[in-house]
From TrEMBL:
The active site is at H178 (proton acceptor). The keyword NAD applies. The lineage of its organism: Bacteria, Bacillati, Actinomycetota, Actinomycetes, Mycobacteriales. The gene is ldh. The keyword Mitochondrion does not apply. This is L-lactate dehydrogenase. Its EC number is 1.1.1.27. The modification Phosphotyrosine is found at Y225. GO terms for biological process: glycolytic process; lactate metabolic process. Substrate binds at Q85, R91, N123, P124, V125, D126, D151, S152, S153, R154, T234. Residues 6-145 form the Lactate/malate dehydrogenase N-terminal domain. It comes from Gordonia desulfuricans. It catalyses: (S)-lactate + NAD(+) = pyruvate + NADH + H(+). GO terms for cellular component: cytoplasm.
């Protein structure tokens, strides 16, 4: 399936929503891209600015507005509306205001685009995804969160940088919460088919001993806080990550991505939304993969799930 006739809608014209729109426009992921926000002047200005670059991208129509009509008949809806994360504020602390906003906006989007695949990007994404599933009544495959797709990209970037290879040669996943309790799966991480733990260091580059792995994991967890402290928000990389998920859906790619959904059927995890490697295709999140983890990783995943379980309970989810 190509982009012909497809429609992508993005709810929220803030830093993240416009980054998704920009990345999607450049990559030509949909024939129509719609941007919706209650701030009329802002959304109209963003659409106008993007429209002025249409000469330089694949054939696309970019539309926008301040009512949910603009989202009607979408194939994919990316939900980015929510409270802005402040410096030093954890993702989980954003939950209350964002859940309230989701209760107001999401049902209206589902009403006008009942067959769309909904991708929740707003932080804290796991809690918001759990709330959105209950609010919308949509099945797990049709609504899921962006999860740790960005975190896994950060992990791969740091592994590639340390190893001195192209990031495209690295396969590694972050699982669990998109946040402070997330877990890198070192036991299955590889570089060009070589396990990371067996990597024979290139000249000028070190091996992946425990100290290096711990440093990289720490950098991944704290990456967003560092960016927010310096520029106020993370937007470019999450825009690209969300666009990659949209492509996997619209192009029916059957791509493995660590998206966040209710982990039904996974022992110890079936009551929380968190990220595990999953197949993403035109139906949405088609199914989760049975990924091998070692004892330490499984313990960390259970701890991450408990963190989310406690937060969900706090909000009656």
């Amino acid at each position: 399936m190509n982009a012909h006739g497809t429609k992508l809608s993005i709810i929220g014209a803030g830093a993240v929503g416009t980054a998704v729109a920009y990345a999607s426009l450049i990559r030509g992921v949909a024939r129509t891209i719609a941007l919706m926000d209650i701030d009329t002047k802002k959304v109209e200005a963003e659409v106008l600015d993007l429209s002025h670059g249409l000469e330089f991208v694949p054939r696309t129509d970019i539309i926008g507005g301040d009512t949910m009509d603009v989202v009607a008949d979408s194939d994919v809806v990316v939900f980015t509306a929510g409270a802005k994360q402040k410096p030093g504020q954890s993702r989980l602390e954003l939950a209350e205001a964002t859940i309230g906003l989701t209760r107001t906006i999401l049902p209206k989007a589902v009403e006008v685009a009942p067959n769309a695949v909904f991708i929740m990007v707003t932080n804290p994404v796991d809690i918001v995804t759990s709330a959105a599933l209950k609010i919308s009544g949509l099945p797990n495959n049709q609504l899921f969160g962006s999860g740790t797709v960005l975190d896994s990209s950060r992990l791969r970037f740091l592994i590639a940088k340390h190893a001195g290879v192209a990031v495209q040669n690295v396969h590694a996943y972050i699982v669990g919460e998109h946040g402070d309790s997330e877990i890198p799966l070192w036991s299955s991480a590889s570089i060009g088919g070589v396990p990371v733990t067996d990597w024979d260091a290139l000249p000028g580059h070190g091996a992946f001993d425990e100290e290096v792995r711990d440093r990289i994991a720490h950098e991944v967890v704290n990456a967003a806080y560092k960016i927010i402290e310096g520029k106020g928000a993370t937007n470019y990389a999450i825009g690209l990550a969300a666009t990659r998920i949209v492509e996997a859906v619209l192009k029916n790619e059957h791509r493995v991505l660590p998206v966040s959904t209710l982990a039904t059927g996974v022992e110890g995890l079936d009551d929380v939304c968190l990220s595990l490697p999953s197949l993403v295709d035109r139906s949405g999140c088609a199914r989760r993969l049975d990924v091998s983890v070692d004892d330490a990783e499984r313990a960390g995943l259970m701890k991450s799930a408990q963190t989310l379980r406690e937060m969900q309970a706090r909000f009656g989810l």
